[in-house]
């Protein structure tokens, strides 16, 4: 029913459909859904993509040469996908990575960038220390929005770990694990919230506790056991969520043991995180946990390229791997760097 001169009337079907079409056009105006931003080079047998990874340097992100400055590295390369042969080859640029800088920090920490994602025609990176979402423009990291922890009514920045696009909203999630004391006692559920962000930067805070608990239960993990997340992707093709958890344990959290509890499951679920399916991914080293992944764009969301990161004491490393959603490995873990890179994207 529409209003006209103070009265309600039912428009003809054709007029109503025209109104819906015009609404859809207006809704889509200005939104850039191009992905990847650089078109791949395709031959009959090979698809070549530009890729990038982003560094989370943790406490060493503070610049040793510039005051009140924190840095990260953006490393670029090429991924070549040969679909007929189930082959993937990755080569990195020979030039030095781009150094990204910021002067924004919380408690002397910043620029610990944990994910790269394309949204509305922009390349974004999320900081797991401050909660700032940066837009990467050439060699600059420009702050876009600030995400606060939990329900948003806190003074602590959101520990942003994964990001993806669903229904033209940017979804940003944290580790999906309760905050606990060093003794393993419960403190709060703030990391079990997720955030959605509109293209205009409007933020919503959503309690995802039940969804995270269902993901754990899919592989028989219950409190005080835990599962941590650093990578999650919504697939428009499958209309499903996909997660590669970083750590999994059926036991109470232990700092020393945690370093070797890299998870080796691909979890998929419907839009409400129901009907969860778990596929085991081969792993050769428990210290390597998934920190980011993307579907290869021309694979029909059947082939994943992922980063595995290592943090054992002062030792860090990053590996790249690729496999199908059924768990067939196409690229064995290949060392990229002894630095920790935690975000990958097709650019």
From TrEMBL:
One GO-annotated biological process of the protein: proteoglycan biosynthetic process
Q: Which domain of life is it from?
A: Eukaryota
Its recorded reaction(s) are:
a ribonucleoside 5'-triphosphate + 2 H2O = a ribonucleoside 5'-phosphate + 2 phosphate + 2 H(+)
As given in the record, the signal peptide range reads 1-30
Concerning Pfam families, the annotation shows: Apyrase (PF06079)
Q: Which SUPFAM superfamilies match?
A: Apyrase
Q: Which cofactor does it need?
A: Ca(2+)
**Which Gene Ontology MF annotations are present?**
apyrase activity; calcium ion binding; GDP phosphatase activity; toxin activity; UDP phosphatase activity
Sequence positions that bind Ca(2+): 114-115, 161, 230, 291, 342
The EC number(s) attached to this protein equal 3.6.1.5
Q: Which UniProt keywords apply?
A: Calcium, Hemostasis impairing toxin, Hydrolase, Metal-binding, Platelet aggregation inhibiting toxin, Signal, Toxin
* Annotated InterPro entries: Apyrase, Apyrase_sf
The entry sums up its family as follows: Belongs to the apyrase family.
Q: Which PANTHER family match?
A: APYRASE, SOLUBLE CALCIUM-ACTIVATED NUCLEOTIDASE 1
Q: What is this protein called?
A: Apyrase
